[in-house]
Amino acid sequence: MHPRPSKARWWILALLFLITTNNYLDRIVLGILSPVILEDLKFTKLEYGYVNAAFQATYAVGFLLMGWLIDRIGTRKGYSAAITLWSIAAGLHALSTSWFTLAFWRGLLGLGESGNFPAAIKAVTEWFPKTDRAFATGIFNAGTNVATMVGPPLFVWMNGHFGWRTCFFITASTGTICLLAWWFIYRVPREHSWVNPAELAIIEGDPEEKLTTRISWGRALRIRQTFGFALAKFFSDPVWWFYLTWLTLYFKEARHLSLEQIGWALPVIYLMADFGSVAGGWVSGFLIRRGWPNGKARKVTMGFFALCMPVAATAVAVPDTWMAVALISLATAAHQGWSANLYTTVSDVFPKSAVASVTGIGGFLGGMGGVIFTALLPGYLVTHFGYLPVFVMMGGFHLIAWTCVHFFLGTMHPLTEAEMA
Fold first, then answer.
1. Is 203 part of any domain?
2. Which domain holds residue 396?
3. Could you tell me if 375 and 50 are in contact, meaning their C-beta atoms sit under 8 angstroms apart?
4. 8 Å CB contact between 51 and 103
5. What is the CATH number of the domain that holds 116?
6. How many whole angstroms separate alpha carbon 193 and alpha carbon 184?
7. Which of 56, 80, 94, 213 pairs with 306 at a CA distance of 20 to 30 A?
């Protein structure tokens, strides 16, 4: 009846991409307009670090809560709750009158936004076979880079014409549109009217999982592979957060660029991150289709990106700004290629019933790494020693993370009941 497969899974992926783009537009407004907001609300770089710490701390805790919630009430309801919360919190940023009130709304935003990746990863697991999951993850994860590419010139222009508070109202409004689209479109494949039998056969083409029982946090924490993913997040996530939250101040203070110049430099950097995100997922999928074991394909791909990071960290020492932009572009591209594969290791190893929870545990540790290495420590180091030690530190974290992946995740084979006991 249906010789050609329908394409519903790609429409679902496009929706995940759009929601992830909105998710990141909400969170990057502060970093892009930080010089203006610091001056308007009259707070210091140390207090700016505290504001970022509030986001990172609730983002970390929220990963645990959201991962647990999404595995229990389902992807559709769980993602809807997260989008609602982060959209409300984004709009409330406009009411800030001091660094403390800004930190409070920032914390609420972190709690809501923590639901994006557990829900999106679970949705990819529900809609794509294993050979395509890294590529699909790379596609929706590219929404983070599109946001950071489009956001800087857009928010700089909006700030110049309407003020920084309006930027938060706009992203809150687009979040409402995303919520409505998600609620009315998303269903699991077997319940979706857009899916025909041929496409369903592709989606469910992997061997049937033998383990379908829910996995508690306590049980997940007794499994070695959980720590491989979580520790890798702990060490690698702060690098992305550093570039996301400190780059505007770095270009302004160390490279003496105007806000308008920064608004055009950042899109170049995050355009390269887009390529890295998609390429990272495609490369490992290509190797798997050529017969490589999952674990070997993921590790080789992630190892290559990890080796790029020390090279990229030399951006702090090069004399010309265009060279710094090129090297930082390498860092963001390599991290996103790394991230597309790291997220996919969860669905490679764990059953679908545990994907959001394990992603949540990893996100919690990634968020705590962000609190320590992105929010608190850089504020002190930049204030007293400048940007050099921070860039050097960020250059080595992915190599440590890859070592954790190698020793704890092992071959990345699907776990059996006995291994998860």
1. no
2. 8-197+223-409
3. yes
4. yes
5. 1.20.1250.20
6. 12
7. 56
Distance (Å, rounded) from C-alpha 295 to C-alpha 178? 35
Total structural domains within the chain: 1
CA distance 385 to 378: 10
Q: Is residue 69 part of a domain?
A: yes
* Other beta carbons within 10 Å of 30: 26
CA–CA distances in Å: residue 292 to residues 284, 286, 299, 409: 9, 9, 11, 17
Count of CB atoms within 10 A of residue 196's CB?
A: 16
pLDDT in tens, 351-399: 877 787 888 888 889 888 888 887 677 777 877 888 899 899 999 999 9
Residue 154: partners with Cβ closer than 8 Å, 6 or more residues away: none
- Name the residue among 247, 253, 252, 279 with its Cα closest to residue 266: 247
Amino acid type, 33? L
Q: What is the pTM of this model?
A: 0.74
Nearest to 415 by CA among 365, 345, 342: 345
User: Could you tell me if residue 231 is inside a domain?
Assistant: yes
